[in-house]
Write a structure and sequence with these properties.
With about 130 residues, the chain is mostly beta strands. It has no helices and 11 strands.
């Protein structure tokens, strides 16, 4: 049974940093696209950052414009894990953060509806 388990959320002041972790189990995810999404109260789930395997046998990272330059996604295939380093956090980063994975290779739209596996989320609250 495939499981994605997030951790690392919490309360942080604006300008601070957090690192989210997602550990996958049940299969190997080294060639899977893995991403982070978030959902704030009253809003739709949105893409934050993703890492995908490409046809040139490399990983490529994609970021939402709102987090470029502040967030970094990276993966450790030996641990079947993906991480999201979040720096310079803003109040608007407050949300439930979800890890997701999909077996697709190459260009991704990163639409939430297209992701095959989901974790249950970890809450990030940024305070002023």
């Amino acid at each position: 049974q495939v499981q994605l388990v997030e951790s690392g959320g919490g309360l942080v002041q604006a300008g601070g940093s957090l690192r989210l972790s997602c550990v996958a189990s049940g299969r190997t995810f080294s060639k899977h696209a893995m991403g982070w999404f978030r959902q704030a109260p009253g809003k739709e789930r949105e893409f934050v950052a993703g890492t995908r395997w490409t046809a040139t046998n490399t990983y490529y990272a994609d970021y939402a414009d709102s987090v470029k330059g502040r967030f970094t996604i990276f993966r450790d295939n030996a641990k079947n894990s993906v991480y999201l380093q979040m720096n310079s956090l803003k109040l608007e980063d407050t949300a439930e953060y979800y890890c997701a994975a999909d077996p697709a290779i190459g260009t991704m739209t990163w639409a939430p509806s297209g992701m095959h596996y989901w974790g249950k989320g970890t809450l990030v609250t940024v305070s002023s």
